[in-house]
């Protein structure tokens, strides 16, 4: 799921969304009249594809809240982080901000975001519990979950049949067992990966200790996992080009060099664009389960600026953006998953149960997984650097003559240095 963040961005024309509204000012908006309230609303690379959706949502909100004006600005994806950090430092960050989990935690650490446990406690139970925690930083939540993606498997039925299988694997361990047979009988790979972090997290191994001050993954179980992957690599079961991000798994799947591709169903049509004949022989299946039974989930979040001059209006708009009706409409337009339980009860998702199209079936399966989907990313602001440090030592072990225990220890040292 390293692809996870990219997966979500690509999904809505390389987006990350960013909603925002005016900034500066403390928390005294409760006593202000909303007659002159203005909310700035930032999105990322959504225009013109989602102009009708965004403008329609704004119009509905403004009609229901006379005197409140929402100003929409679309920001190029490459400019988002700099604009948001600069705005935070200068006190001019937008009131309502849509952020991925890692960037959210960075801004929360800077004190830039409002506490949603306090401001939006009335809607907390509307969301899946496992994704609500995506907005947490050091014991408090600083965002409402918005749209989601979790992994589903797109698999090549003919390749599996040639290897002697009638169905795809259901667990990670079973997937690796099948990978060996697939490679021997077809020459194609089964499993592919670019990151080891999720395997650790969803095998019950915390990345950091309880107060997030030190690495906690240097345990025998991690060394065992690293050793398994080193052996799999020596056995020729891991496509190194994908591991090193020199090749894209969707392209290899389209070339029938991979028997399956585990990703969000919203991306399956990339295969159809690349190789319609391969897509026609494909089907969707549930994600491979880790030992804990949980499924990783990628969450996009809606946060409110701590310095918003119109905080009441901003919180109201954040709740509106993430309500069931608006999330369901967004899901229909983009194939993302909603974070609100009520939205997933719609026939739109149930219709995919018996679908023959992998995207429609995958959407149904992805919704079924939300009850066990869990965002386990540790609430620290430099999460991306931590992930990179672990992966660098993992990849070095795979490429060099480095023992698994030494690789884990080196990763631990690198993470501890980052935390200091």
Structure description:
This protein has 21 helices and twelve strands. It is of the alpha+beta class and 420 residues long. The strands form four sheets. Strands 3, 6, 10, 11 and 12 form a five-stranded mixed beta sheet that branches. Strand 4 (136-137) and strand 5 (140-141) form a beta hairpin. The model is unreliable at 1-35 (pLDDT under 50).
The tally of helices reads 21
Instruction: Tell how many strands the DSSP assignment holds.
Output: 12
Class derived from helix and strand content: alpha+beta
- Cα-atom Rg, whole angstroms? 22 Å
Largest sheet: 5 strands, mixed
How big a fraction of the residues is strand? 5-15%
Distance between the termini: 27 Å
Average pLDDT score: 88
Helix content: 40-55%
Low-confidence stretches: 1-35
Task: Label the overall shape.
Answer: globular
What labels would you give this structure?
420 residues, alpha+beta, 5-stranded mixed sheet, 3-stranded antiparallel sheet, 12 strands, disordered N terminus
């Amino acid at each position: 799921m390293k692809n996870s963040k990219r997966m979500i961005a690509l999904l809505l024309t390389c987006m990350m969304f960013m909603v925002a509204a005016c900034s500066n000012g403390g928390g005294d908006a409760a006593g202000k009249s909303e007659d002159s309230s203005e909310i700035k609303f930032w999105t990322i690379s959504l225009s013109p594809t989602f102009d009708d959706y965004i403008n329609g949502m704004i119009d509905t909100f403004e009609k229901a809240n006379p005197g409140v004006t929402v100003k929409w600005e679309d920001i190029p994806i490459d400019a988002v982080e700099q604009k948001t950090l600069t705005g935070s430092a200068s006190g001019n960050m937008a009131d309502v901000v849509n952020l991925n989990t890692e960037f959210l935690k960075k801004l929360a650490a800077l004190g830039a975001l409002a506490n949603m446990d306090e401001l939006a406690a009335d809607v907390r139970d509307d969301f899946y519990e496992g994704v609500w925690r995506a907005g947490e930083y050091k014991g408090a939540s600083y965002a409402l979950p918005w749209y989601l993606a979790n992994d589903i498997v797109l698999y090549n039925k003919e390749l599996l049949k040639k290897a002697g299988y009638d169905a795809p694997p259901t667990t990670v361990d079973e997937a690796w067992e099948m990978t060996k047979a697939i490679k021997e009988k077809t020459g194609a790979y089964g499993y592919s990966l670019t990151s080891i972090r999720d395997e650790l997290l969803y095998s019950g191994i915390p990345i950091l200790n309880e107060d997030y001050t030190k690495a906690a993954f240097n345990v025998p179980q991690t060394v065992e996992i690293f050793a398994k992957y080193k052996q799999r690599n020596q056995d020729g079961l891991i496509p190194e080009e994908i591991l090193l991000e020199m090749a894209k798994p969707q392209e290899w799947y389209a070339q029938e060099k991979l028997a399956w591709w585990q990703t969000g169903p919203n991306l399956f049509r990339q295969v159809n664009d690349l190789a319609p004949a391969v897509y026609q022989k494909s089907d969707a299946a549930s994600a491979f389960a880790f030992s804990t039974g949980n499924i990783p989930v990628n969450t996009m979040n809606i946060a409110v600026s701590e310095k918003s001059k119109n905080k009441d209006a901003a919180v109201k708009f954040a709740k509106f953006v993430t309500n069931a009706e608006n999330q369901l409409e967004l899901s229909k337009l983009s194939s993302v998953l909603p974070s609100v339980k009520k939205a997933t009860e719609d026939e739109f998702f149930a219709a995919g149960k018996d679908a023959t199209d992998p995207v429609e079936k995958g959407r149904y399966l992805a919704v079924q997984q939300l009850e066990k989907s869990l965002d386990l990313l540790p609430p620290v602001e430099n999460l991306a650097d931590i992930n990179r440090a672990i992966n660098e030592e993992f990849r070095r072990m795979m490429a060099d003559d480095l023992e698994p225990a030494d690789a884990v220890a080196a990763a631990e040292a690198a993470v501890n240095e980052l935390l200091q």
